[in-house]
Design a protein that fits this description.
Layout lengths: L6 E2 L4 H4 L2 H26 L4 H9 L5 H8 L7 E3 L19 E8 L2 E8 L12 H15 L3 E7 L19 H11 L4 E10 L1 H4 L6 E5 L3 E3 L3 H8 L5 H5 L1 H8 L4 E3 L2 H13 L39 H5 L7 E5 L7 E8 L2 E8 L3 E3 L7 E3 L2 E2 L1 H17 L3 E7 L1 E2 L3 H5 L2 H14 L4 E10 H6 L9 E4 L4 E3 L3 H8 L15 H21 L2 H6 L5 E2 L5 H14 L13 H9 L4
Parallel strand pairs: 4-5, 5-6, 6-7, 6-8, 7-9, 12-16, 15-17, 16-18, 18-19, 18-20, 19-21
Antiparallel strand pairs: 1-10, 2-3, 3-4, 10-11, 11-12, 13-14
Helix pairs in contact: 5-6, 13-15, 17-18
Length: 575
Amino acid sequence: MAKVPLSPIGSPRDAFLDTATYAKNRAAMQAKDEALAAKRAQIALGWGESYVERVHKKGKLTARDRVDALKDEGSVVREVGTFVNHGRKFGKLESPAAGVVTAFVKVAQRWTIVIANDNTVASGSWWPRTPEKIQRAQEMALRLRLPVVYLVDCSGLYLPEQSTSFPGLTGAGHIFKKNAELSHAGVPQIAGVFGDCIAGGGYMPIISDRVYMTESAYMVIAGAALIKGAKSMHLSSLDIGGPEVHVHRSGCADVRVPDDQTAIAMIRAEIERLPSSGADFHRHGAEAALPHHAAHELEGLFPSDYRMTYAVEEVLARVVDRSLFWEIFPERGLEMMVGIGRVDGLYMGFVANRQGVIDDPEHRGAKKPAGILYREGIAKVAEFSRACNADGIPIVWLQDISGFDIGVEAERLGLLGYGSSLIYANSTNTVPMFTVLLRKASGAGYYAMAGLPYEPVVQISTPIARQSVMEGRTLAIAAFNTKLDDDFEIATKDPKERAEIEQGMRDTEARIEGDMDPYKSASQMDTDEIVSVSELRGWLETFAQCAYQATGYRTLKNPRIWSLHDLAALSEPRS
């Protein structure tokens, strides 16, 4: 019988990091975490307290009230897309979280994807990027076969911005295509209709397997105001498409309920009727366990200066159960660390960038920087990725990468070909993959390590993550290269021209540094969510549970017959 040889990894914090440095790092990270918490709290208010009060005075719940009532008591809501449209103005208005809450929510001990229109933001309207955010959540549900719960309270498109959210490939209509794809794949969809559901908001729940309507809800292709203008008819929206119409006449809804709370209770009852999670079966008798080295210590492990290094082994030791890990190919491709650990008792594959300086196998006795992909590391990661896919082991990518090796030797060694092999593997994998941007996510290395363009199920970023082709200073030098000499110093002797070049380089560097801010990435949907490093273990637990919840839709080999055992046997040194 082939066993998974998990071994202790990591060290006590004070064995590798002095208290003063740890405290300095932790203080810097906690400042980032406080800023993150403040931004989340502001977004959670939608358009503000007055709009929350307005909803409550109608006897209704807000979107986040509904999510809170739906979730299992004591469970954590894992919101994704919190910062979509963050910092973006539409005239004088903002659309916090793009006017919709999308989240992993545990309901009746089953993970679900919940999509809830924020009725405190323009009555739940769809803004630019709202459709894309909804579709992204639907795609997560499809990939993991998680039930979807729609909490619908949507007055359709925010019409002043309709041109950017209506017609394109991922425009509002694509939501309904995703509804159909989920249904075709057998993914349960349950909808609660709580208020205005006009046009697209009316279409959204229809393909769902169950549709509940409250007494104050209505679903219409066109609202009363539009009908009055087009046909000179004086009707209310409830007359046109309320529960009396759609539950008792049209059949477009299933059950009529008095209020929000009753609808939530009925949705919970529906989820309870679904199959329970397969996660416990796939623990193979193991019990979930916390890391031996405490996860909260991650706060002080990352240097406040991104140019400084840390040991990625210590990061892994604080996210895997009991700090036990099976490293594959430990003697090859030292810039990369790949292997298997348990998270909440469930096997997960890990790919991580080492930092610092490593031995150079191409030049005996020489050293080279890690955090870069070289030939052996690329080959190792590609083979590990393919094996995990064959074995059905979900993969977590822990990115802190500056890119691929470059230069004459890199080209001679065929890095383009090796990189293409890795990209092919990650592009064709069907196993769930989850990407974590710990710090740097630069150049083609970001792509090769399953960055968002390679469609991981979820990509999360820490508050110190930096997505870019290259760093600001490097890019400024590249942009002004024709003005610099061979030592990258400004070539001109003209004081005025020199001052203009210096200012131009400073401006370019500052702009690029701003572009690398994780909140800008999250606003543009270039990453799914920003999470504090102290939350990483919790997020990985959610990913593991979700990846193993549904059964029968993907390969899941038992650990005795993993391809990884063959790779490990072939890489063992002969005596």
